[in-house]
Design brief:
Chains A, B: It catalyses: sn-glycerol 3-phosphate + NAD(+) = dihydroxyacetone phosphate + NADH + H(+). The structure is a homodimer. By secondary structure, chain A is of the alpha/beta class. Chain A contains 14 helices and 12 strands. The first copy, chain A, has 2 domains: about 190 residues, Rossmann fold (3-Layer(aba) Sandwich), CATH 3.40.50; about 150 residues, N-(1-d-carboxylethyl)-l-norvaline Dehydrogenase, domain 2. In chain A, the strands form 3 sheets. In chain A, strands 5-2-1-6-7-10-11-12 form an 8-stranded mixed β-sheet, sandwiched between helices.
Chain lengths: ~350, ~350
C-alpha cells in the first residue's frame, strides 16, 4: 500500500495533550518508514501563550509548551494555525480535538480534502444526530467529509505515552489494508497497536467508559471500599457491552479484552478526570459545573453528557435493555438523586 | 430442595479472615431461611490467643479476635476445634482454609462425611497431582471425600464483606439444584451471588489472578505508570483465558465478565498481598521469602507458587500456548531475572 513513490502525508487535526503526544510518535515514525512524507502538519487552534503565538512557539522550540510541556516534538512536525491549509494536501487525517469541536471543524474542511484521503479519530465522545439517534464521532466525520474512517482508542494517558511508558491501543478499522497502513504510523516499541475490525465497539468503549468512571468516582467519594468499586466497574463493563450490543448487534465480545475495553476502563476508573470530579462531587457537595470550572481548567467532562445521551436514546427505545448503573449516573448528575442510590444497582436482580 | 423437614446443616471448615466473614453471612442466613438447621459449626484450628483457646474465645465472645477482630459473629455459629466432630453431621461443607492444608484436612475427614453431603470450596490455589498434572482444590476434595463440589470466588476482601460493603461473588457449580441451594446460604442484600456452570474457569480465575497481581506489583515497584499497569492487567487476563482454555476447553468466555473474572482481578491488582509484596520486592531488593516473613505475619504468597506450577505444566506440554507474562513472573520470582524484563512482553508480538 505504501510505496516510496506515493509518499503519504499525515496531518494531525488537533494539538492538545493527546494530539501532541501522538504527533511525537507519528513524526518519528514517518522519518524511518518507507512510503510516508517526512512533513507532518499539526493543526493548532491559535492562542497566545506568554505573549507568543502557540503555533510559532511549537515551530521554533519544538515543544507544545501549553498542552504537553517538557516533551520535545520531532522537528518534522509543523504547527499550522490554518485548518484548511494544514489538512488539504494530507492523505491521512488524524482527528484529535475535543468532540464538541467536530461539527465546526468538519464544516470548515468540507470540500478541501484531498481525494482518496482517509481519516482516523482519536476522539472520545458521542452525539445524537437530528433524529435523536446516536451518532459516532467517526460517523459524523465520515459522512461530512466523505472519507473512510478508523478509530484509535486505548488505555493511553497522554503524558505517559509522551514519556514513552509502555502501553497498548486498539485500532478499529473496517478495511484491513487501511488498518495495516495506520498501524504503521502509530506503532512504536513502547506503543503497541492491535487492529480489530469492530470499529463501532472500539469507539463506543472510548465514550461509555467515562460513565462507568463517574460511578467509580461516586464510590470513591462515599469510601465504599475496593470490593464495591470492583463490582461497580464490572457491572459498568457488562452494561457497556449490553448497550453496544443493542446498538451494534454485530459487535464482538472479544473486543472488550482489547486495550480499548478492560484496560482503558481500568485506567479511567482509577485515574481520569471523570472519576476525580465525581469523587469531588460527593465529597464537596458542589455542582458538577462548579467543579468542572474549578478543577478542569476549561476542559469538559465527558461522562455526565454521555450518560445523558444514552439515557435519552434508551428512553426513546423504551428501555429494552437494563442498564441500572448508567441510569443511576444520569440521575445523580442531572436529577439530583443521592449518590448513595447508586448502591441500588446491587438489588435490581434479587438474590433469593 | 430445602424443605422445613430436612434442616440442612452447614459446617465451615476453616475460620480465618475469610472463613469468619462467611460464617457471619451463613450464620445469619440459616436463621431466616427455611430448610436449614440454625446450628452452624466452624472448625477452628486451635491456637492460644492471649492465654485463651481461640475456639473458646469465639464461642464466648462471638468474635474471631485473631482473624476478624471487631466483627460480631452470629451466636448460632459454634467454633469447634475437633475437625471430625465439626464436619461429620454436616450436609454442606464450606472449605475455607489455606490451600496447603487441604490434603491433610481431607485425609482426616475421609470416611467421616455424612452420606449425601455436598461441598463448596472458597480456597484460592492450585496443585499438581502425582502425575504432574494440574489439580484443582475442588477436585482434590471431591476425589478424596467423594462429595460433589462447587466453588465460590470473587472480588471479596474479607474485612469489607464482614463490614457489609456491597459486593458480588461467583458460584461455580456443575449442578443447578445444588447451585440454587448454595446461593441461598451465601446471598445477602450486600453480597450478591451469581451462579455459573463453568466451575473450572471460576476456580482457575481465583488462582491465576495472583500471578497477574505479581506482575502488577512489579510494575508499581518500577513506577511504570497507569497505562503500563492497565496493559499488564489486560495481557494477564488474556493469558489467564488462554491457560484456562487450553486446560479446560469447554470453559466459557462470558465467565470472565463475572465477579470471579475482571472484578477479582482488579481488586487483587490494586490491593492484595501478592501485589504488595511484589512491589516491595522491586523497591527493596529483598527476597520474596524474606518479605513474606516480614510482611505477611505467617501467611503465604500464592502468586509465585502458582506461576511456578503453571510454568512447569506448560513446560511439560512444550509451551503450546504463549503466556509471556506468566513466564516472566515465574522467571523473576525463581530464576533471578530482572523485574524490568517484564517489559519484554510488549515486544513479543512485533508491531511493524
Amino acid at each position: 500500500m505504501a510505496s516510496s513513490i506515493e509518499q503519504l502525508k499525515v496531518c494531525l487535526v488537533g494539538s492538545g495533550n493527546w494530539g501532541s503526544a501522538v504527533a511525537k510518535i507519528i513524526g518519528n515514525n514517518v522519518t524511518r518508514l518507507e512510503g510516508f512524507s517526512r512533513d507532518v502538519t499539526m493543526y493548532v487552534y491559535e492562542e497566545i501563550v506568554d505573549g507568543e503565538k502557540l503555533s510559532e512557539v511549537i515551530n521554533s522550540r519544538h515543544e507544545n509548551v501549553k498542552y504537553l510541556p517538557g516533551i520535545k516534538l520531532p522537528t518534522n512536525v509543523r504547527a499550522e494555525p490554518d485548518l484548511v491549509s494544514s489538512a488539504s494536501n494530507a492523505d491521512i487525517l488524524v482527528f484529535v480535538v475535543p468532540h464538541q469541536f467536530v461539527p465546526g471543524i468538519c464544516a470548515k474542511l468540507k470540500g478541501s480534502i484531498k481525494p482518496g484521503a482517509v481519516g482516523v479519530s482519536l476522539i472520545k465522545g458521542l452525539d445524537a444526530n437530528v433524529g435523536g439517534k446516536l451518532e459516532l464521532v467517526s460517523e459524523t466525520i465520515a459522512s461530512s467529509l466523505q472519507i473512510p474512517m478508523s478509530v484509535l482508542m486505548g488505555a493511553n494517558i497522554a503524558t505517559e505515552v509522551a514519556q514513552e511508558c509502555h502501553c497498548e491501543a486498539t485500532l478499529g478499522c473496517k478495511n484491513s489494508a487501511q488498518g495495516s497502513m495506520l498501524k504503521r504510523i502509530f506503532s512504536t516499541d513502547y506503543f503497541k497497536i492491535e487492529v480489530v475490525d469492530d470499529l463501532e465497539a472500539v469507539e463506543m468503549c472510548g465514550a461509555l467508559k467515562n460513565v462507568v468512571a463517574c460511578a467509580a468516582g461516586f464510590a470513591d467519594g462515599m469510601d465504599l471500599g475496593s470490593n464495591t468499586k470492583a463490582a461497580i466497574i464490572r457491572i459498568g463493563l457488562v452494561e457497556m457491552m449490553s448497550i453496544i450490543k443493542s446498538l451494534f448487534p454485530d459487535s464482538k465480545k472479544k473486543t472488550y479484552f482489547q486495550s480499548c475495553g478492560v484496560a482503558d476502563l481500568i485506567t479511567t476508573c482509577f485515574g481520569g478526570r471523570n472519576r476525580r470530579i465525581s469523587e469531588a462531587f460527593v465529597r464537596t457537595g458542589k455542582s458538577l459545573a462548579v467543579l468542572e470550572a474549578e478543577m478542569l481548567n476549561g476542559q469538559k467532562l465527558q461522562g455526565p453528557a454521555t450518560a445523558q445521551l444514552i439515557y435519552k436514546i434508551l428512553e426513546k427505545e423504551a428501555f429494552k435493555i437494563e442498564v441500572p448503573l448508567f441510569v443511576k449516573v444520569y440521575q445523580i448528575c442531572f436529577e439530583g438523586i443521592s449518590p448513595r442510590s447508586l448502591l441500588e444497582i446491587f438489588s435490581i436482580v434479587s438474590n433469593l
